Amino acid sequence: MTKSEGSCCSGPAAMPTVTDRLPTANLSVFRIEQMDCPTEEAILRKTLERLSGVQSLEFNLMDRTLTVGHELEN
User: Fold this and answer.
1) How far apart are CA 32 and CA 59, in angstroms?
2) Per-residue confidence of the chain (74 residues) as pLDDT tens digits?
3) What is each CA distance from 32 to 14, 23, 59, in whole angstroms?
């Protein structure tokens, strides 16, 4: 896929989909089809790290996944 075929840098970004949830470890893994550059990672990181309960963010641009370590509120 080329940049002109779609990414947040060139067009509308797709919503992430939850691919796996591990409630005992408080991890959620999201596949974000349009995430393929460090700029997109930085935008997501800046937004998500401010949220209450987010403990860690692990990005894998090659696999286009984001693993979020979190503490769920009751």
Assistant:
1) 10
2) 444 455 555 544 455 555 554 454 589 999 999 999 999 999 999 999 999 899 999 999 999 999 999 987 64
3) 7, 20, 10
Distances in Å between the alpha carbon of 38 and those of 35, 48, 66, 69? Answer: 9, 15, 13, 20
**Assessment of whether the complete model's pTM goes beyond 0.90:** no
Q: What are phi and psi of 57, to 5 degrees?
A: -135, 125
Q: How far is CA 18 from CA 10, 57, 63, in A?
A: 24, 15, 14
Residue 33, SS3?
coil
Beta bridge partners of 31: 17, 65
Q: For tokens 């893994």, what's the residue?
A: 29
Please list the residues that pair with 30 across neighbouring strands: 18, 66
